[in-house]
Amino acid sequence: MALTPTWRLRAAFARRLSAMYGTEVPAYTTLLEVTGQINDEVAGRDPDAGRLGSLDRVTAERHGAIRVGTPTELRQAGQVFAALGMHPVGFYDLRDGDVGAVPVVSTAFRPLDATELDRNPFRVFTSLLTTGDRRFFDADLESRLTAFLARRRLFPPELLDLAARAEREHGLDEAAAERFLTLAVDAFTLSTEPVDRAWYAELERISAVAADIGGVTTTHVNHLTPRVLDIDALYRRMEERGITMIDRIQGPPRWAGPDVLLRQTSFRALAEPRTFRDPDGRLTRGALRVRFGEVEARGIALTRTGRARYDALTAETDRRTAGRPDAERQATARTLWERDFPRTEAQLHAERLAFFTYRPVADRPRDGRRPPADRAALLADGWLTAHPLVYEDFLPRSAAGIFRSNLTGDGTRDPHRDGTPFDAHRLAEALGRPVHDPFAGYAAQQDRSLRAALTALGADEALRALPAPAPTASTDA
């Protein structure tokens, strides 16, 4: 019997999840429509529009977001995503913002291999509630929250069994694939079960995110994010459609230089009708604002040094614009970037601030000469070409900013208490899987491409000059 391979399961799941979410959140369908229009327009006028991914890839691209309450739930979510060829990459701590309590740590499940990313780059940003963090939850609330979470089951055993089989066999037969996809989409569909009004309100006073995770008996997709080639145009056009957007585009400013890392924005969380169970047992209708429509524009992946430059510019922008309107912030950020950030991809490469892949120029006239040993000379003399790597991951500050901008209130957080220590190693223990270091992944891809290009050119001296390949770093459980 023919096997449906992992990547086809992933692509099918992304399509079905998108269809389901469009039914639940009609404004998401508008977002997809506007995104598609802008992508077509940009591709039509800019011959270099596919530099960071083909139009087919960009059109299919989505990232989802879910939230879970316990390490067991996180481990089970990891099993479902493993069936789709998606692995935990990166550690994001969203608990430390000054405004808007977000008591979660996160990772992103996505493919690791470049070929798999090109086939379908579906990602799911997955957040875990930190119930033991005393800045948010006292001992009594933690105990009651832990008991509530222990009583629920997010993923049915049949789904987990099929997911384990798909991971083990690298796919499923047609009937099992259909059953797996049905159960997986159902697991992330918004429940119609009544919400305990008093319990939800108690958690919401701490954080709307905490209530969305621990105040209900299921999980659901919080947002499903398409990729757009001009996020500023999309922001304007969505508002022209009468859809209220959050107050800013998160991430690097719009400027005349290279697009780097990730820019994100969203429409505001919508008031969605829900059924509540009141303290007297009556069922009444109300609404919750927990789901929103995010959109992203992806740029070039930066090295650790490049990321440090970005972080420093962001901090300086914050310092100069504290308490000022967002328009001033954007203008200040552009001024700082134009002064302190490389204006071209060539400069990014020369200063080793970004990741690139390399290709040999096979038909270059050699005139009896051998390729030089120096990488810069290989590029300058036309032996190699460098192509920027697209950033496949997330920014904790931007993610927290999107979360906070869609909350119903700032929540409460006691800054005088210590937070629960949490890092990538502890997250890996909870998952029972390694958490991969995104920087190491980009570096390994860059190194492989360079070695392959130099081998194709016969550039033995340049090959010998390279350091030994570093292992792809991960945090093992």
UniProtKB/TrEMBL annotation:
Necessary cofactors: Fe(2+)
EC number: 1.13.11.93
Keyword Oxidoreductase listed: yes
Keyword list, A-Z: Dioxygenase, Iron, Oxidoreductase
Recorded superkingdom: Bacteria
Protein's UniProt keywords contain Manganese: no
Enzyme class: oxidoreductase
Designated name of the protein: 2-oxoadipate dioxygenase/decarboxylase
Protein's organism: Streptomyces lunalinharesii
